[in-house]
Fold:
Amino acid sequence: MTLATVVERLGTDVLLVDAARRPDLSLWAERPGCPKGIEVARITKPRQLDEVVHLGRRSRRFVVIDAGVCDTMLAEAASVSAMAIIPVRFSPLSASAAAETDAMLAERGERAPRRRALVATGITAIPSRIARRVERDLSACQGFRLPAGLGLRAAFEAPFLTGGTIYNLTDEDAPGLASARQDADAVWSELEMFGLRRPERRGDTRKVALPKEWTRPQHAVASGPYQFT
Structure:
């Protein structure tokens, strides 16, 4: 979501594909404060990804996919993406999962994104012995480790609770928003230097309507907020 909001502020329409198990992005889009330039499409089956990404590209939207942790969905997302961004927190469990994801993408060969970047999130001080374990796991990764990261976890998680983005919330909503904005802008700048193509501005886009069942988060709900088809 953070990447999508940064791109939208540059004047580009964004298609944010919610393909994770929990429809957090779809629920966020229903809350107040979601930018008008961001449209969220809810995807529950890997075979749906190719079509929805194709529609996004046809309309010259910048497409961002949250593939979650399902191996099948991750593999399908990799096949339609130009860059994979792997979040990693400073914990052995997160570092191990990031290394496994990086290795899985590397094994896909031509069906993998051309570039892979690891981005630190929720940065906190950790004991040296844990830091050594994290560094050991990450040293095996072939993906590029971005120097910048998203450090203030509370600020970046606040939009999921209140709606809005780090750019339109106030200090009453979450602490550290000014620093979070600087972090997000720095990550975007480094992704651009790493090869992420600057998106087209909104005036150059051609709107292509998405199927309604993809843009209504309710279609994924059976008997509760996290029941999936």
Q: What stands out?
A: The chain has a mean pLDDT of 83. The radius of gyration is 17 Å. The chain has nine helices and six strands.
